[in-house]
């Protein structure tokens, strides 16, 4: 064997070893996945996500650490500072993470391509958005798409100035909004349609005390995104894990029927609205 051939084989072996060690190191590290706190964060709500975590761990063959930051803005910052590798954002929080930190969109639920905000009330006299003038009203988080951005857009289009015509408050998440309306703390509120349906199905709220009176226009909402410097192998593996997921019990954890690939341009309409309302 020539010296050059021995050198080539030696270099090839070293490269293969480096790749193998790199994969082993990647597998040894936790994959940190976060959710915006769209629903109330309780021990029960965290435990309910365990089938989702189990699926990802089995599929990716590495430990998955679930992290739910204290609010929407904290989720954006966590992806930006590297505390999270992948996060589930609403459109507005994704747009902020993309603009500030170069977040990369991966996938979205089938449902996210045709999404709606729901306006709910327990007041029988409220039938249209114009009826909200002078009333108390609950948005979700200030950075929520379906709980603030789109509802504000709809209200303004109906001639209602959220700052002047409502006594508005931010509840922090969709669950809190629904409970505030159902309990009579506020006259009305707006929230994510999938959260509303789940709260009704789980009997957390009585739909008679928090009935839907207006449904927003259709828009694109949530997306799973990765931090900009997450390695390509992990990005690909996570994306494939989402796209291949078919188990209805696991999909139900994230209120989904399936996932499709996402791209940044799909969020341009939300981007325009967010800039117009001074939220981006």
From TrEMBL:
<dbReference type="InterPro" id="IPR006311">
    <property type="entry name" value="TAT_signal"/>
</dbReference>
<comment type="similarity">
    <text>Belongs to the phosphate/phosphite/phosphonate binding protein family.</text>
</comment>
<keyword id="KW-0732">Signal</keyword>
<dbReference type="Pfam" id="PF12974">
    <property type="entry name" value="Phosphonate-bd"/>
</dbReference>
<dbReference type="GO" id="GO:0043190">
    <property type="term" value="C:ATP-binding cassette (ABC) transporter complex"/>
</dbReference>
<dbReference type="InterPro" id="IPR005770">
    <property type="entry name" value="PhnD"/>
</dbReference>
<protein>
    <submittedName>
        <fullName>Selenate ABC transporter substrate-binding protein</fullName>
    </submittedName>
</protein>
<dbReference type="GO" id="GO:0055085">
    <property type="term" value="P:transmembrane transport"/>
</dbReference>
